[in-house]
Write a structure and sequence with these properties.
Strand order of the largest sheet: 10-11-12-16-15-14-13
Number of helices: 15
Largest sheet: 7 strands, antiparallel
Strand content: 15-25%
Helix content: 25-40%
Number of domains: 3
Distance between the termini: 21 Å
Structural class: alpha+beta
């Protein structure tokens, strides 16, 4: 959750970095074939209209995401993206493409017309070599080359998270959205709100094009299958840590079944092999920020802490938190919720009613009454409305805090009727933190270490900066199993402070 104004209005928190001239100087240690003239029967060169539309969308994304991720690893990552993109035939030179790294803790990538390609730093951290990262970016470029975006729904469906909640709650009020569906929508990947979903056939075509681009660039084409497997493993681990049953990766939503997709990707690669640049890649991404950025707030188990907003709160037992682009999402057996902010004139009653009013675009929501209270010395107000869903009645609660002059925050929660009280401990847990507490919040970093004699996956995993599932996190991050024996001198990834 990002601060972008004095009012701490919840702007999208994934940060972007446009390509810089330095990227041209940051070439891989073993340079893949830099084909500058390619032929792709499905690709048409980027048009002036594409560039205009892409530039407009790019500016909007930059504004919505609130700024760039500026790590020293970025020019190198950009060079990989440009090298694979030029294989598509959309442009004849690497300068025809803009690769942007998002400051997001979610593994994701997407592309827009006009040569604009996006990936998150978290995805770069999950990849084990250049070929794997190139495979994912090649897939996204493939969507553009095949003109899939023209076959999707209108780009006007891009919404902020608050817009999405409004749409969801409209369904709740109209009785055509169940609480289970609501939870899935609230906790869908933020990228789902920025890019529209492709059909299964389109995903398969993009996979085929990605393998073609890998072969043209001289990369190992089996890398697509490898990174798809790791994305599935990471998503399954996230589901396990959150206690959710849905283990379908966000990248596989409406896509071909994950295992089949991996098998198909490996079959497309055939017997062809190429370079991976594993050691060079790992060396160059050393120090990449991993997980939450403290400037956007940190999730530790069920507790969210924001050192710049100077606040913290803890979700109820059995819940999990996801620090999203515009809000912190809360999910679990008790219901669903989000923590965010809105413009504040100084009147909490007006604030609460305004939040209710914006929750649904199709039916006006209003609390039956507004109660005033104080939470840990902070003036607060709350209200509740009962609405009908296909699964029965639910209670929608808005609990707001006058945190400072001109600054307010609030929870919106949805729970089965009569069970909204399960969130009371969370409402009462919000408090200010001191400057000393805030200064102790540190980011995690990806560190590349060399295996020494006697090191095992368990001894190395014990060095991970996590108290929950350090071994599983280490194995997924590196694409290993518990029985893997690590040769001395091998490079592996750790996450440390």
């Amino acid at each position: 959750m990002t601060i972008t104004t004095r009012l701490a209005t919840a702007a999208l928190s994934g940060l972007l970095l446009a390509a810089t001239p330095a990227a041209a100087q940051a070439q891989p240690q073993y340079q893949p074939r830099a084909t500058t003239q390619t032929q792709n029967p499905t690709a048409l060169p980027i048009t002036a209209a594409d560039r205009q539309e892409g530039a407009k969308a790019h500016r909007q994304l930059l504004a919505e995401y609130g700024g760039p991720y500026s790590g020293p690893q970025v020019p190198y990552i950009e060079s990989i993206g440009k090298n694979i993109a030029v294989q598509s035939g959309l442009g004849s030179a690497k300068t025809d493409f803009t690769v942007t790294v998002l400051n997001s803790p979610v593994e994701n990538a997407f592309a827009n017309p006009g040569g604009y390609i996006y990936l998150t730093r978290q995805l770069a951290a999950l990849a084990n070599n250049e070929a794997e990262l190139a495979a994912v970016l090649g897939h996204e470029v493939g969507h553009v080359a095949a003109r899939h975006s023209a076959k999707r729904q209108s780009a006007a469906q891009r919404n902020s998270i608050i817009g999405a909640i409004g749409s969801i709650l409209s369904g709740v009020v109209l009785g055509n959205t169940g609480l289970g569906q609501l939870g899935q929508q609230l906790f869908s990947s933020g990228s789902q709100l920025l890019t529209l979903k492709f059909s299964r056939a389109q995903e398969s075509e993009a996979d085929q094009l990605a393998v073609t681009y890998l072969k043209r660039a001289g990369y190992d084409p089996t890398a697509l299958g490898a990174i798809l497997q790791r994305l599935a493993a990471q998503n399954a681990l996230d589901a396990q840590l959150q206690g959710t049953s849905d283990s379908t990766p966000t990248w596989a939503s409406t896509h071909p079944e994950p295992a089949a997709r991996v098998r198909t990707a490996l079959a497309l690669a055939g017997q062809a092999r190429g370079i991976t640049n594993r050691d060079a890649y790992l060396t160059r991404i050393d120090g990449l920020m991993y997980g939450d950025d403290p400037r956007q707030g940190m999730v530790e188990g069920r507790t969210f802490t924001h050192p710049e907003m100077k606040l913290t709160f803890t979700a109820p037992a059995g819940s999990f938190l996801a620090n999203g682009t515009q809000a912190v999402s809360i999910g679990g057996k008790n219901g669903q919720g989000q923590f965010t902010s809105a413009p504040f004139s100084g009147d909490l009653d007006t604030y609460v009613r305004a939040v209710f009013g914006k929750l649904s675009s199709q039916a006006q929501l209003a609390p039956t009454q507004i109660e005033r209270t104080t939470v840990n010395g902070i003036p607060a107000a709350y209200g509740q409305a009962r609405v009908t869903t296909s699964d029965g009645p639910v209670d929608v609660t808005v609990f707001a805090y006058a945190f400072a002059q001109g600054q307010a925050y609030h929870f919106v929660t949805i729970a089965p009727a009569g069970r909204g009280g399960a969130f009371d401990p969370m409402y009462r847990s919000l408090r200010r933190i001191s400057t000393t507490e805030a200064s102790q919040i540190r980011p995690r970093r990806l560190r590349i270490v060399t295996v020494k004699a006697g090191d095992t996956v368990r001894t190395l995993a014990a060095r991970m900066a996590y108290t929950d599932a350090p071994l599983q996190r280490f194995l997924v991050l590196n694409g290993l199993t518990e029985t893997t024996r690590l040769p001395t001198g091998t490079k592996v990834k750790l996450v440390t402070y």
